[in-house]
Amino acid sequence: xxxxxxxxxxxxxxxxxxxxxxxxxxxxxxxxxxxxxxxxxxxxxxxxxxxxxxxxxxxxxxxxxxxxxxxxxxxxxxxxxxxxxxxxxxxxxxxxxxxxxxxxxxxxxxxxxxxxxxxxxxxxxxxxxxxxxxxxxxxxxxxxxxxxxxxxxxxxxxxxxxxxxxxxxxxxxxxxxxxxxxxxxxxxxxxxxxxxxxxxxxxxxxxxxxxxxxxxxxxxxxxxxxxxxxxxxxxxxxxxxxxxxxxxxxxxxxxxxxxxxxxxxxxxxxxxxxxxxxxxxxxxxxxxxxxxxxxxxxxxxxxxxxxxxxxxxxxxxxx
Length: 319
Ligand code: AMP
Ligand code: MG
Known about the structure:
319 residues; alpha/beta; DHBP synthase; 2 domains; nine-stranded mixed beta sheet; 10 helices; binds adenosine monophosphate; binds magnesium ion
């Protein structure tokens, strides 16, 4: 059981420039004091994350926004009113107090207020915003339990706050309000809040989700969220050419013909996308641990959270 003292200790460690892994409703984060460039450098080091990939800054309360953002357009304010605390990150002009390492040298910063009591208590107790990417090595599957973090980092991350499994299980949606001459926001990453939900509040979004020569969002890497086992996305069938090949199946609902697979993970018996999202990363990890030759992932319906799930699967499958 987590105690208030655990949170006080973790907050003290953050203030002293250390790293703490903590739960949010999306995935587990690896946090550092967002105002301390050296502490944030530690996050990049432990994760093996390239310095061009900026971090999201987490707040305990929406009211802390102006400590981090220089200006907030009215449409951004509408999204904040509707979705914070929650799995939505907004890219806004940054305050000079946010060190360059947090934003990879950009003049903007991604900000969110997580909807997780433990995360908010930690940030509140630390008294500073916390910069945090997912608590996994760069490019690998994101952690949705404290155990995933411990398995990945061992002693390298000595303090992991255990808040149980993450409710959403997919990263936050990222929406940018910078570099838009017509003021319309841009969807940079699908995530825990669906595009449809956002568009109901601010109208049609511009979409920019793929790696470009000069990516607007440096983290939009084609290959990401990937298990070590090769993963292929395929709507039906698979051809191994040899019965000695061990194939795993990642299926949205229970498959009608499971024959031929050495291991099967069903994301949602009921066919519920929310449940599938919450199970996705843990299911990928279980398949990855089975010594399979490859994993076949079946597409999920591309509606609501299905967009974000398919985004993760496509990146996991990219070579
Ligand atoms: P992660 O920490 O893995 O959840 O990734 C955060 C992602 O948010 C980054 O990889 C970027 O794609 C995006 N992001 C963060 N800060 C910015 C920014 N200032 N401008 C554009 N995208 C950003
Ligand atoms: Mg990540």
